[in-house]
Structure formats: C-alpha cells, structure tokens
Amino acid sequence: MALRRVGAVTLTALAVVLAPTSTVVASAQEPVPPESAGTQLVDEDPEFLELHIDNVTPSTVTTTSDPIVTVTGSVKNIGDRTVRDVSVRLQRAPAVASSEGLRTSLTLDQSRYDTVGMFDTVAGRLDEGQSKQFALSLPLRSDTDLSLDITEPGVYPLMVNVNGTPEYGGAARLDDARFLLPVFGVPGSPAVPPDISSPVAVTMMWPLADRPRLAAGVAGSVTEPVRLVDDDLATSLDDGGRLDELLGAAEFATRESVDRDHTLRDSLCLAVDPDLLITVENMTRGYLVVDDPSDPTGSAHEGAGKDAASAWLERARTLAATMCTTSVPFAQADLSAITEVGNADLTATAVDAPADIVDNVLGVTSLRNFVWSDAGVLDDATAQMLRGDDATTALVAANSVDTTTPRDSAHVIEATPPPAAPVPANGETTTPAATETPAATGSVDALLFDPSVGTALAAMGTTPQTPSYTPQRARYDLSDDSQTARLQDALGAVSWSALEPEAARAAGVPRSLMVVPPQLWTAGADDAKTLLSTVSSLMRSGLATPRPLPALLGRQPGSPEVASLDYPDQAAEDSVPAHIRDAAATQMPRIEALNAALVDDPQAPLTPERFTAPLREDLVRSMSLAHRRDDERRSAEEASDTRADEVAETMDDMFGAVTVVSPGGVYTLASEQSPLLLVARNDLPVGITVRLQVDAPSGMTITDIGPTTLPPRGSRTLTVPTEANDSRKLVVNFSLTTADGQQLGEPTSVTVRSNAYGQALAILTACAGALLLFLAGRRLWHRFRGQPDPADEGYERS
C-alpha cells in the first residue's frame, strides 16, 4: 500500500538491511519424521506435555568454544492424565539462507529439521503436574557418530522434540521448542573460521524508557512533590531492576577494560525517553505514590525510590557523556495520533521538546533532526509533519518503505508542500522525480532496519511483544517459547548478515545492520549482556565494524530515489483509539487558553508554563504506545483512558476555580448612575487576567471594564459603572471569561433595584417646577403693581 499523502513525499533509504520479511506460520504440531517410525501425532487439543528450554551452551559457537552443543530444560505434564515413556531429542534444520528465514525457520514443519539425534529418555512415567529436567548434548560435527553436522559458519535453527505415550493413547510427539544457534566458526580439527572479507557495519540503539508513571491531571507546583501512580519505577531503578540492568549492561560492555578500542561504544547510541528522565529527576527530590491512580489528588504515601533514582540518574549522566545520545518521542507517543490531533503545542511536546529535555537533565548535546517512532513505521501525514528547515532522518522498518531499486543503494526522501489539486480518492499521490542535488530543506530521510531482526529483539525479555511492522504471516504466540529460546533467536538474528555475506549480496542486502530493540524493552541483565557480548564478538572476530549513528544522519551522497511509505494495518490496530485522540483535541485548546490568560509574574516561582505543562504532557502520555503490543495491553488502555479523563476533570476544576461571587439578595443602587460592586475570586496558584461578560436587560446600561487581573488565590472587587433607567427589580447575568472567550466558572445572576423612578418621575418633577414658577411669578406681578395677592386675603384680615 502506497503512502497516503497531503503533499508529495519521497523517502531516502540511508541504510537498508534486508529484503522484505515473509514468514509462514505452521502448526505447533506436525507429523513426526520418518526417523520416528511407529509414532503418531496427537491432536493439538488436549495438550499433554510442555517443553521449556533453560539454557543453551554455547549460546554462540566460535572456533574456540566447546564442540558439543548442550541444551538443558524441563518437561512438564500439563494434561489430565499420566504420560509414559517421555523422551527428547535434538534436531537441526538447514542454515538460514535469507533474512526472512530468521522467523520462518521457527515455524517450519518439524520434518524440515531433518538432521536428528537419538532420543534420550526423560522419565518412564510423568504424572499430572509433574515436571522433569533433561540435558541433551550433540557434537557439532563428527565423522563417526551422530552429530548436528554443522560444518560451516551460519545461523542454524535447532529444535528439541519431546515424545511420549499418554494414557488411553499411542506414542506421539507432544511438544517441541525451537531456537536459533549462531555459529561464528566451527571448532575442531581443522577449525573452520568465518569469512571476514566483508564485515558488516553495525549501529545499535540502546533504549532507556518506561511506561508513564506520573499521576494524571496534577498541575505543576514548586512546593508539592510529584505523585506517581505506583512505586514500580523505584524497583526498576534499584539494584536488579530492569532499568538498572539495562544501564548496567551498557556501562559494563563499554568500560575501558572491556571495550579497549571503543568499537562497541562507537556503534551504540543511547535512546532515552524524556518522560522517564522527568519522572526520575522529580523522584530525586522526594515524591508521593497515590493510593488510587484514578484519584491523583487523594490519599498518598511517600515513595521509596529517592536514593535509587539519584544513583541511577547520575550513572546515566556519566554514560551519556561518553557516547552518542538521542531522545525518543515523549512517553513513546503514537506519532500518527499526535499528527491527527494537529495541535502545534502538542506536537512540539511530543517531538521537538524531547531533545532539550534530554540535554537539560543529562547535561549532554543529543542528536537533533532524528526521529525514532515507537511503532517503527510512519504514515504519510506524520512524514509531512516531520518536515523542518533541516533534513530530518526517521528510523523505520525496511518493509514499511517501497523502493524500486535494489535495497543496497542510497534513497532520499523529499517532502514537498501539499499540492493545490485534491488528493485522489484512492489516497495515492505522484511524487516528483528526485534531482541529483536535492535541497535539504523540508526533506525526510529514512534510516531502515531489518524487521526480522527487530521482531527477534522485541521478543526478548520478560514481557515479549510483536512489533506493528511484523508481517501478519510472521506473527505467532511468543508465549510458546521460553525466554532462553527467544534470546537465542535474537542472537541469531543480529549475527545472520555478518555470517552470510554471499546470501546477503544475492538478496541485495547491504553490508550494514541496524540493531533496533523496542523502546520499552524488558530484556534483563543476562539477556542484555549476552546480546552486547555477541555484537562485541562480531567486531573482535572481524565479522563487523562499528558505524556511529551520527554519521548516518543528513543527506547521503549518491543519486536519490523516490520511495513511498507502506503503513501496515497492524500499526493502525495497535495505535491509540479515536476517543483518546478526540479527548486531546478537545482539551488542548482549553489548556492553551488558560495558559494565555495566566499572568507571568517574574517575581513568582510558579510560571504559567510550569503550571500547565504537566497537563499538556499528560495528553501526550495518554497517547503512549507503551505496552500496547504485549500481554499488558488492557492495563495500558485503561491507564490511557484514566489519564485522559483526569486531564478533562482537572481542566474543568481549573476553569471553575475563577468565578464571580454572587452578592446574594437584592442589590440596591443608591442612584440611577451608582456603580455595581462585584467580587471576582481566583483559587488558582497563578494570577489570571479575565474579562467580565454582562447580560443586562433593557432599562440598564453597564460599561465594559476591560481586562482585569486577579491575584493568585485571591479576590478583587470589581467596580462596574452602571446606569439604571427603571426602578423595577432587574436581573443581570455576569460571568468571567478568558481573553478569547473561554468561560471561567459558573455565571452569576444579580438582582438589582434602583432608586430611579424613570419617565413618570421626570414628568411630575417638570410639572411641579412649572407650577412653582407660575405661582412665584404671579406673586411678583401683584407686588409690582402694588396689589395684594389674592392668595394672601385670609392672612391680612387676621
């Protein structure tokens, strides 16, 4: 599917590492091979035995390693009946011949694993719920005995097959476990070394990220400690925790005594989530953990991770100062959702601000103009959004980019302004041909990674996930594999292109490799150290060389090629749902309006930006992709819904905290032009500028008093010039708004009565005045003529 465009976009493949992935998912149980004559397949339902691999020795084979492969594990009866004659054996399939085979080989019919060893009895009887350990060993090669018959370096799929006889049934293959074994060189006499004539150039991302932890809907403060929804991050940062181990593995692998020539350090780049850094830095000052995440301002207790956060953050600063460091989008935000909301401030929080946050917290200068979407893919609208004054490089899966030339050539993306003509109904647009010297302004370049390698890395750890870019035919239940087996698959995936130069050349795959784990990676210490050790071994053996990430950014030499983006349906399914996007689109204008109305007092420690920033960040956190592709998806969705709801509720409270206080009763004006006195109250900790909106009836004129500033957590009397031309009781409605008309608080109705009598009083007064003038004039007239005034006749006689 071609990229849907608002404007024409072209994509540059700066480093492509593979051909498109194609995996055929097979049944977990297939007919047993001819070597198992006399056995038959038992239906998948019910299940009887569960096979678990605990250890593979050696995990990677070299010319100096043990020439015997040993696999240890356990078999457990998970059925409802006893199983007898439980036995296991080791089998091998042909070496992986293509990148896509890194996943397809793990789901092949078991008959394709045609190099087999002897069955080894695990137990004569295995009752319900009972488990038994086993150890299988087989030589890599032998001229006389059974062996794995591995005579050349490569990546080999291995399978442990378990047979048994359930009660009321016949002998059958009841389960199997598969994994990859990378062979750098074959030990023995003579040893077979690898081909190091064309080493692969390796660039490796090392992510430090976590799901959002800060309690939602809590505005910024300079006195109150931050609140977290739980204290799991304290455990993760402390000794033996996930983030401690990820950081520790990178520290150990790049220390001077281990990485003397800095080859591994040069190939690594720390990719840090700014939301994690904000959270950890706040934890170092002391923090609270809420008792109920849905009530962020409710009861809370002191967190226990202050010291662990301080120690971890200091270690992160030390490590970041020695190597490439970059940021990922804030809280691993869904960039397609951010783009759809289309709010500039929200986009800046998710995409632009992270680099500055990483720099400020870690004290480094991180990479700029580099974007790694958590989804591993981009849609056209997001590619358009990422255009800037300088060329932007996006790290995406190679199967999300459609190119017409071999994948080992340079490709360049040009993002041009939206066309004047409407986009066709099918969503496809025509990209203009690239020139030999394209302008860097407004372009988006693509740095590609192998989706098969990325999928294998994402399956590592305690909480495996399947990335959105993994083709549907390559997706299968990762819980069927043990953590050890998934680690072996990852080791094989990162080793394949170095061990199969001829296959890589034939497929048009360049001699380069991007090692891209998921941003929220649950690999433990042993897994992380083993992976780094394997990459280091590739370099020490001459199979690989470091390729620093900064050298790949910016426009690459060579003729560019127009390319389109293929946004997979699975990415849309894994993305943030519409109601969360709608919530962000609704609340962002309210946050912006409130922020603009708040007073930026240089003398006040709490600025408007600091006060409202956590709410804007909460909306980005609600659009996080963390845990949306693994077994914790439901809890991630619930947390996202809670966060969006809490922001909306907090904004309602903030807007309701600024209001006009009703005077109560009837307000009497001393005269028809007496001012009306009102009280406006601001319960926010930041001053705010408001406007008084008046809805007055006929017979009353009220003058606009203009903008009024209310002090933090204070009130102010508003003197409102008023002219009443009616003595009746009049109801006047008052409300406060921001400068752009956003209503604050609830409207207030005031009943006003004036001492003015209106037109009737004016007529009576005029008539009385005229009569008085007439009578006074008549008296003066009579006196002037010396005549007595008839009105005085009664008084003269007395």
From TrEMBL:
Segments crossing the lipid bilayer: 756-776
InterPro entries in the record: DUF6049
Biased composition (Basic and acidic residues): 627-644
Signal peptide: 1-28
Record bears the keyword Membrane: yes
Superkingdom of the source species: Bacteria
Region of interest (Disordered), ranges: 623-644
Keyword terms: Membrane, Signal, Transmembrane, Transmembrane helix
Protein name per the record: Glycoprotein
